Amino acid sequence: MRDEPALLRQWTLLKTLATRRFGLSVLAMAKEMGVNQKTIRRDLDTFRALGFPLSATVGEFGRKTWRMEPSASQPPLSFTFDEAMALYLGRRLLDPLAGTVFWEAAQRAFRKVRASLGESALEYLDKFACMFHHTSFGAHDYSKKSEVLDLLQVAIEDSKAVHILYQSERATEPAYRDVYPYILVYHLVRSSLYLIALDPQDDKIKNYKVDRIEAVDVSQFPFHCPSDFDAKTYLAAAFGVYVQDGDPVRVKVRFAPAVARYVLESKWHPSQKLTSQRDGSLVADFELSSIEELKSWVLSFGSKAVVLEPEGLREEITNELRALLAAYGSSMSSLATFGNEAPIRRSIT
């Protein structure tokens, strides 16, 4: 982008002016930005023309300093000016929740941000949107779940039991269930919302994928959420959102050199221990309560990831690979049969 360097410099300058309590002189700004004073003066003229709340103070010996401060005509903000701009630029990250109560609340907040920044400033900030993009692969549309999410949020806030119509993954038909809703969790990797709730019949905390909740009825029956329940603690040993009772299982996986760097670049789980090997491969250790999600993750690496332990997981993946090989073999056989079929001859009458 042709004007990207100027935009990045001006963004840095705006942030600097918003965080310096006593302001900065043009000379000081020029030194910090690594440009001449003439460039800084042009930037300041641009900011003022766009309506940014700049103020200049003349001190001793005529020394003028500049800073960013809220205007009396603007609604008060509980965050700094550059924080407001960052929030506005990050609004697209909430696109997966479009149409939900969370999205609506965010839109109200963004309208306040818009009112504080002004249209001219917003047009200027929209140029930065071209620098950031997030993909929507596997994204979920929760716009049709707005009422479901609204009722769940009310039930969680009021500690009321709910009657949900839920279509589980293995069931052929949805069924009604009575649960005590604790909290809603957003799984970033899956781009999915889950309800963590207590099933009073089994006396067990379970996860319910919001996509599969077809209806919600909030009862008048109150329940008590344990004061020591914490979603972060509850999910600490999960490789995602699935939790199983019992002691954590130690899992060890060897990754081939071709994917070792990729694995090293991310934080996959709080318990992870990544050890680089002399041959360029990588051994990853985890302590997990459930291995179901990790199994899918390991399989996604194909032959470049091999489970070293536990033996039970090695057997599960081996069986999965055999089934996969059989599926490919049968499909190729079907294709071959289809391709060798004699053409059907029809007489024209």
Describe this structure in words.
The protein is an alpha+beta fold and 349 residues long. Helix content is 38%, strand content 22%. It has 3 domains: 1-132, Winged helix-like DNA-binding domain superfamily/Winged helix DNA-binding domain (Arc Repressor Mutant, subunit A); 143-228, SH3 type barrels (Roll); 249-328, Alpha-Beta Plaits (2-Layer Sandwich). The protein contains 11 helices and 11 strands. The strands form 3 sheets. It has a 5-stranded antiparallel beta sheet with strand order 6-5-4-3-7, covered by helices on one side. The protein has a 4-stranded antiparallel beta sheet with strand order 9-10-8-11. A hairpin with a 4-residue loop joins β5 and β6. α2 (26-33) packs across α3 and α4 crosses α5. The longest helix is centred in the last third of the chain and has 30 residues, at 311-340. The protein is extended, with a radius of gyration of 29 Å.
Going across the major beta sheet, what is the strand order? 6-5-4-3-7
Percent helix range: 25-40%
Rg of Cα set? 29 Å
Helix/strand order = HHHEEHHHHEEEEEHEHEEHEH
How confident overall, as mean pLDDT?
82
Q: Segments where pLDDT lies below 50 for 5+ residues?
A: 344-349
DSSP helical segment count: 11
Shape: extended
Strand content: 15-25%
What's the number of domains? Answer: 3
- Termini separation: 67 Å
CATH-defined fold name of the largest domain = Arc Repressor Mutant, subunit A
CATH fourth-tier homologous superfamily of the largest domain:
Winged helix-like DNA-binding domain superfamily/Winged helix DNA-binding domain
Oligomer: single chain
Q: How many beta-strand runs? A: 11
Query: Largest sheet, if any?
Result: 5 strands, antiparallel
